[in-house]
Write a structure and sequence with these properties.
By secondary structure, the protein is of the alpha+beta class. The chain has a domain at about 20-64. It is about 40% helix and about 30% strand. It is built from two helices and five strands; from the N terminus they run αβββββα. It is globular, with a radius of gyration of 11 Å. The structure holds zinc ion. The site of zinc ion has 8 residues, from β5 and α2.
Length: about 60
């Protein structure tokens, strides 16, 4: 599980794109969110992350 987080983190750092506001489903927590969304690509698949999950990931990054 920790490896996946590291891969996600790396991809997010490398390929984060901010997009316009709108409703979307977060691929990380599975909740429907509106507002800021973070898109990144993991193994060729697009992953959409909400701001909360992105923040969590950043916090994790500090602990690694
Ligand atoms: Zn989320």
């Amino acid at each position: 599980m920790k490896n996946l987080v590291k891969v996600l983190l790396l991809v997010v750092v490398l390929a984060t794109m901010l997009t316009a506001c709108g409703k979307f489903t977060c691929d990380t927590c599975g909740k429907e969110k509106s507002g800021k969304q973070h898109k990144s690509e993991v193994f060729g698949e697009e992953v959409v992350m909400c701001d909360d999950c992105y923040d969590d990931l950043e916090k994790l990054a500090d602990e690694l």
